[in-house]
UniProtKB/TrEMBL annotation:
Active site residues per record: 249
Family designation: Belongs to the succinate/malate CoA ligase alpha subunit family.
All copies of domain CoA-binding, residue ranges: 4-104
Protein name (record): Succinate--CoA ligase [ADP-forming] subunit alpha
Domain of life: Bacteria
One Gene Ontology MF term: succinate-CoA ligase (ADP-forming) activity
Taxon lineage: Bacteria, Bacillati, Actinomycetota, Actinomycetes, Kitasatosporales
Residues at which CoA binds: 17-20, 43, 100-102
Catalytic activity: succinate + ATP + CoA = succinyl-CoA + ADP + phosphate; GTP + succinate + CoA = succinyl-CoA + GDP + phosphate
E.C. numbers: 6.2.1.5
Keyword Iron-sulfur in annotation: no
Keywords on record: Ligase, Nucleotide-binding, Tricarboxylic acid cycle
């Protein structure tokens, strides 16, 4: 089992023929992802060769879905075109849109995440590394060779910390790792992933990675208290950050005690979550909890 992405997922890549799209499509294919097509109106009808696989290019997401049955799209288009790309995918009925693009204006992110939700399309991102179900499928830019399948679910605001915890816990492995993105507006939240991992029979423990700014982690703590029975271990980036200054890819601002790493740590610990002071300590907490549960 997994959440949101499995070996059955059929993936389109919007922006596949660009430099980043080409590079990461090749990596996704190497990880076993069923990439069934790219989308570029100017190059429709062509195919792109990736080692031993020729991937067709469609003129629209709707054409790609009609021809291949795709249910996931990964968006590598420039920021100015991201809103229209997601709206097109939602209009076509795609189930999951993974928006890798960074630098998207906040008002565009608000518009397309709201529109997609209304259309029944889940958005992961923007400004995210995507998600991976090790051994099954990889949609985005997460390295596929640093971990293996296992019982840990991971949800993270930070791409780099996603990779680090995957590597730290590589001997145990993961059900699914989801990088939700660190922008002020994202389509999928910590809470969304906690709910999905709670329902996944092959996830025994959840790692939650947050960062300073906003109140997403405090809201996640409240959700954990009421709805999550599986153990959760967390790491919050930003304990040494100065107050009153905008920082990080989230544009996070800390004012007084609100949004600080300490406040988030206290909120999570109050509901029974172990919070590591470093990624390595967080990994040690995970190992201890898993060992205690055996």
């Amino acid at each position: 089992m997994a959440i949101h992405l499995t070996k059955e997922s059929k993936v389109l890549v919007q922006g596949m023929t660009g430099g980043e799209g080409m590079k990461h499509t090749r990596r996704m294919l190497a990880a076993g992802t069923d990439v069934v097509g790219g989308v570029n109106p100017r190059k429709a009808g062509r195919t792109v060769d990736f080692d031993d696989r020729a991937v067709p290019v469609f003129g629209s997401v709707a054409d790609g879905i009609q021809t291949t049955g795709a249910d996931v799209t990964v968006v590598f288009v420039p920021p100015a075109f991201a809103r229209s790309a997601v709206v097109e995918a939602a209009d076509a009925g795609i189930g999951l849109a993974v928006v890798i693009t960074e630098g998207i204006p906040v008002h565009d992110s608000v518009a397309f995440t709201t529109y997609a939700r209304r259309k029944g399309t889940r958005v992961i991102g923007p400004n995210c590394p995507g998600l991976i179900t090790p051994g099954q499928s990889n949609a985005g830019i997460i390295p596929a060779d640093i971990t293996k399948p296992g019982p840990i679910g991971l949800v993270s605001k930070s791409g780099t910390l996603t990779y680090q915890l995957m590597y730290e816990l590589r001997d145990i492995g993961f059900s699914t790792c989801v990088g939700i993105g660190g922008d002020p507006v994202v389509g999928t939240t910590h809470i969304d992933c906690l709910a999905a991992f709670q329902d996944d029979p092959d996830t025994d423990l959840v790692v939650l990675i947050g960062e300073i700014g906003g109140d997403a982690e405090e809201r996640a703590a409240a959700y954990i208290r009421e709805h999550v029975t599986k153990p959760v271990v967390a790491y919050i980036a930003g304990f040494t950050a100065p107050e009153g200054r905008t920082m990080g890819h989230a544009g996070a601002i800390v004012s007084g005690s609100s949004g600080t790493a300490r406040a988030k740590k206290e909120a999570l610990e109050a509901v029974g979550v172990r919070v590591g002071g470093t990624p390595t300590e967080t990994a040690r907490h995970v190992l201890a909890v898993l060992e205690a549960g055996r």
